Amino acid sequence: EAGVAQSPRYKIIEKRQSVAFWCNPISGHATLYWYQQILGQGPKLLIQFQNNGVVDDSQLPKDRFSAERLKGVDSTLKIQPAKLEDSAVYLCASTSPGGTNYGYTFGSGTRLTVV
Amino acid sequence: QKEVEQDPGPLSVPEGAIVSLNCTYSNSAFQYFMWYRQYSRKGPELLMYTYSSGNKEDGRFTAQVDKSSKYISLFIRDSQPSDSATYLCAMRPIIQGAQKLVFGQGTRLTINP
Predict the structure, then answer these.
(1) Which residues of A are less than 8 Å from B41 in CB distance?
(2) Is the backbone peptide bond immediately before B81 cis, with ω within 30 degrees of 0?
(3) Three-state DSSP class for residue A95
(4) Which of B36, B43, B100 sits opposite A109 (nearest CB)?
């Protein structure tokens, strides 16, 4: 079974620029998550999709962050404009409806540095 | 107060030692408890999960949950240098469809040969 694919692996941008991250979940996984992991901290949920609908985006800074999951498969997360405090690893994870007892499968993440 | 508290370490022990990692939580709705291992520049990978109080063993790893004290632990026996990683506890309520995991800060562990 292929894992969760994310790209790019690394990105360096200047503050106020925009950036986009891409995620391809495990085939058949209906639920997709984006987490933000700041250095030295645990992952924090940004947004949860069930198929192509948003389940939870309560911690997404909507003035600058947006996410979509067209067709219920791939997802993109965008930041515009970026701030210095957005420097973090952005993790994508997926799970199937019957797999909730087993946690998520995470991708390797995109490491964003805002300078 | 954070929902999940975890000592960030770092923790450094000699090879072969028994390692104890711990988390406390404040939300009594949490029913599923997991431990993730995260190697440098990698995503977290699920190590163990449990949903009841007591112990669960898998090879050199033992997960322990005490719901009355809101306290969970992960024990690593005969620790190996390959166990060097950051260990994250995670938990969620049992509500159907509410799959959001809340993570601890992570404990950075180094096993010295």
Answers:
(1) 108, 111
(2) no
(3) strand
(4) B43
Contact across the interface for A41 and B106, Cβ inside 8 Å = yes
**In chain B, which residues have their Cβ closer than 8 Å to the Cβ of A106?**
43-45
DSSP per-residue string spanning A9-71? SEEEE-TT--EEEEEE--TT--EEEEEEE-TTS--EEEEEEETTEEEE-TTS-TTTEEEE-GG
Does the beta carbon of B105 lie under 8 angstroms from any beta carbon of chain A?
yes
**Closest residue to B43, CB basis, from A45, A55, A106:** A106
CA distance A92 to A21: 10
What span, in angstroms and rounded, lies between the C-alpha atoms of B37 and B86? 6
Asked if B48 reaches chain A (Cβ–Cβ under 8 Å), the answer is: no
From first to last of its 113 residues, chain B has per-residue pLDDT tens of 789 999 888 999 999 999 999 999 999 989 889 999 999 999 999 999 888 788 999 999 999 999 999 999 999 999 999 999 999 999 988 766 556 889 999 999 999 99
Cross-strand partners of A49: A32, A54
Query: Which residues from chain B sit within 8 angstroms of residue A93, using beta carbons?
Result: 43
**More confidently predicted of A75 and A72:** A75
- The token pair at A103 is 């946690």
